[in-house]
Amino acid sequence: MLITAMLGNYFSAGLNMRYAMLKKINYMLDEIAILLRYKSSTVYEILEHISKDERFYELDFINTALTRFNVQESFGLTWEKAVENSSITCLQKEDRLLLKSIGKNLGKSDLEGQLSTVMLEKEELSALIEASQTAYLTKSKLYRTLGVLSGAFISVMIL
After folding, report:
1. How far is residue 96's CA from residue 83's CA, in Å, rounded to a whole number?
2. Measured between alpha carbons, how far is 125 from 96 in angstroms, rounded to an integer?
3. How far from 157 is each of 6, 7, 120, 152, CA to CA, in Å?
4. CA torsion, points 121, 124, 126, 130, in degrees to nearest 10?
5. DSSP state of 84
6. Cα–Cα distance between 84 and 46 in angstroms, integer?
7. How far apart are CA 104 and CA 98, in angstroms?
8. Do the beta carbons of residue 106 and residue 32 sit within 8 Å?
9. CA of residue 36 relative to chain centroid, distance
């Protein structure tokens, strides 16, 4: 019974972790917009600044992209590889696709174009955040309850 209850809690926690990660990515986009708008930062300066910010410590792809950044490879490709190799397991496919598009679009156009792209990505991210919050609110209790009830059912069947 304990194992199935723990499994239910594990799946519930995964939903909560996805929501928290998406919120951190949203804060990261806010920070990128500020760096672009007020400092006209390059992609390297943006990466460097964000990697030093402790709010984004859990977003491991930032440090990976910074350490792999070089002039022979495009920033978009470096970012994409860092996102693909990220150890963040709670993100879904559409979350990773959005993250990859952030890197592909940074540094590709003038300042206003980059800001517009960041705002568009924030809107897409807001939809993902809302969906993850809804999933957490509707499914987390279900996962925990099913975990406990299936454990109880298995215990009764064994006895």
Report:
1. 7
2. 11
3. 19, 19, 53, 9
4. -160
5. H
6. 20
7. 10
8. yes
9. 21
Number of H helices, E strands in the chain: 6, 0
Distance (Å, whole) CA 101 – CA 121: 8
pLDDT digits (tens, 9 = 90+) for 51-107: 999 999 999 999 999 888 876 688 889 999 999 999 988 899 999 999 999 988 888
Cα torsion 41, 47, 50, 54 to 10°: value is -150
Residue type for 57, please?
Y
Q: What is the pTM of this model?
A: 0.82
46 vs 119: CA distance, rounded Å: 16
Residues spanned by the domain of 68:
2-158
Number of domains in the chain: 1
